[in-house]
Amino acid sequence: MNVNSSGSPLSADHVQEARARIAPYAHRTPVLTCSAIDLKAEASVFFKCENFQKTGSFKFRGACNAVASLSEAKRVKGVVTHSSGNYAQALALAARLHMTPAFVVMPENASDIKKQATAGYGASITLCTPTHAGRHEAAERIREATGATFLSPYDDARVIAGQGTACMELIEEIAGLDLILAPVGGGGLLSGTLLAAKHMLPSVEVIGCEPAGADDAARSLQTGKRIVDFTPHTIADGLRTPLGELTFPIIRDGVDGIVLVSEADILHAMRFVWERMKILIEPSSAVAVAPLLNGTIKTSKRRIGVILSGGNVDLTAFFTLLEGTL
Amino acid sequence: MNVNSSGSPLSADHVQEARARIAPYAHRTPVLTCSAIDLKAEASVFFKCENFQKTGSFKFRGACNAVASLSEAKRVKGVVTHSSGNYAQALALAARLHMTPAFVVMPENASDIKKQATAGYGASITLCTPTHAGRHEAAERIREATGATFLSPYDDARVIAGQGTACMELIEEIAGLDLILAPVGGGGLLSGTLLAAKHMLPSVEVIGCEPAGADDAARSLQTGKRIVDFTPHTIADGLRTPLGELTFPIIRDGVDGIVLVSEADILHAMRFVWERMKILIEPSSAVAVAPLLNGTIKTSKRRIGVILSGGNVDLTAFFTLLEGTL
């Protein structure tokens, strides 16, 4: 059994509660299809487009649920986290919508675009040395000084429950799914997806999609022991983190498999989606599309749901190229 | 009065007929909104997403209507055009769906991606020297040899009527529009938009959006004489053509204005849409977004429809960059 912060087992009920809690704030994102991908996979594929979610990724769901779950007394003191990516923006906006101060620790080498986006949502940003220790220490100092509540990007029951709402909406909208694909990094999205999917549709298969260059989830499941010490090598910047203490057992007990994806296949899938669907997805999302295109899983004649986790891509280099052609 | 190929005035009735004719083949594309753009423009903006249309642009509507309008005897002999861009793919697919041979003349320096896409839809491709004369001669030779019907990308009543169906759908879906923005190149889209809009919503203002580096439409309206001889300098590759004999009078008599857009503003608008809306639009589409962001037209408190004409962008350079980082 997985236990949330209040001591009760984490279940689909918590996802349902999260859904009601975030409904006034989060987008119900559209589900898109693509005939070119259906043709390739010989399947009916349904893409849950969290790239269209507020702040550009599913992370807003979990952050919003976590902030909305805080008592008024805690909300006044604010929330603190460390993130260089999508969770920083998500928590910043979730906090602002709840009139809660947000303190975000970012590594000093984070891109200006990400710092600006996070600051744009009203968060106070503290730069730290770009190491795990540096991040934790900075966040801890802020927590002590302000009394703010620390909210992990994925290893938090409220966050996990929030992430499950995307899959809940997908299953409600699309009947008869045989298989659901979701990327796995820290495991928040995959855990939430499992809670929702296995409760609503017990027969559905759920597969986590992971970069081969950051295959800690696959190895953790093989060895039965959570691997936390590894050096990721992947362009999928959202999937470089280890599984959490909460997410590991949920995934271990519920997932039907982890499929590994090469860097070349990540980029191929990303380009395929951009060119054919005309939507922007980030590399971490492409990890869950690649298995539809490269033959590593059985897709033929199946109804497949894919959680497109986000669309935050740094386009500076591309537009610098285009400006150069003017 | 504008006269179509059958000698009758071209009107919203033709757009309505086109709509019925292409309904089995074309997507009814979604209308999206973007709070960041609404905020900037202090307006309610509704984007008609023809980038999600089949073959990635509105061109499919006109091509499909033109092919479907042909007699069975003509259809058997096929269709021929010259195009290096979106119309090539659009006509190729429209022809294939009607089991009609398609002959497309493309300049020999057209990109491999465009040649492949057009060939992928089953068209026979003939390469020509990349001049106006070269294109016309090659198309004419094919027409004579095969008996195929020549279909202009924009200067054809059936094509114009087809392009108007996008605006017709938009007005049906979104009530009370004050202003509609559409890009103008050859004028097919803007002409069709005017036919639909001014009939359905006589009070609506329709503004054509044109690159300052290919401002022939603006100058043609100023002088009252269609300018055909000019050298375009714009990244908006769909808008480099002069107005046609049919489209010029429709635009001259109906449009409320032409707004010119700089190259820098085109790229800025394109990036804004990619980053905030997470959808791919091509530079020609961004020309109709830029006036919402740069203050050149009055947008405040208005309900504004924008035809996002297409999403076909060559991503080779960008993905080559990304591959280099692996």
Write the layout of secondary structure elements.
The structure is a homodimer of 326-residue chains.
Chain A: H1 12-22, E1 31-32, H2 35-41, E2 44-49, H3 59-69, H4 72-77, E3 79-82, H5 86-97, E4 102-107, H6 112-120, E5 124-128, H7 132-146, E6 149-150, H8 157-173, E7 179-183, H9 188-200, E8 205-211, H10 216-223, H11 247-254, E9 257-261, H12 263-277, H13 283-286, H14 290-293, E10 303-308, H15 316-324
Parallel strand pairs in A: 2-10, 3-4, 3-6, 4-5, 7-8, 7-10, 8-9
Antiparallel strand pairs in A: 1-2
Notes on the protein architecture:
- Two copies of one chain form a homodimer.
- Chain A is an alpha/beta fold and 326 residues long.
- Chain A has two domains: 12-57 and 158-308, Rossmann fold (3-Layer(aba) Sandwich), CATH 3.40.50; 60-150, Rossmann fold, CATH 3.40.50.1100.
- Chain A is 46% helix and 15% strand.
- Chain A is built from 15 helices and ten strands.
- In chain A, the strands form two sheets. A six-stranded mixed beta sheet of chain A has the order 1-2-10-7-8-9, with helices on both faces. A four-stranded parallel beta sheet of chain A has the order 5-4-3-6, sandwiched between helices.
- The longest helix of chain A has 17 residues, at 157-173.
- The first copy, chain A, is globular.
- The N and C termini of chain A lie far apart (60 Å).
- Mean pLDDT of chain A is 95; it is low at 1-8.
- The interface between A and B is medium-sized, with 25 and 25 residues.
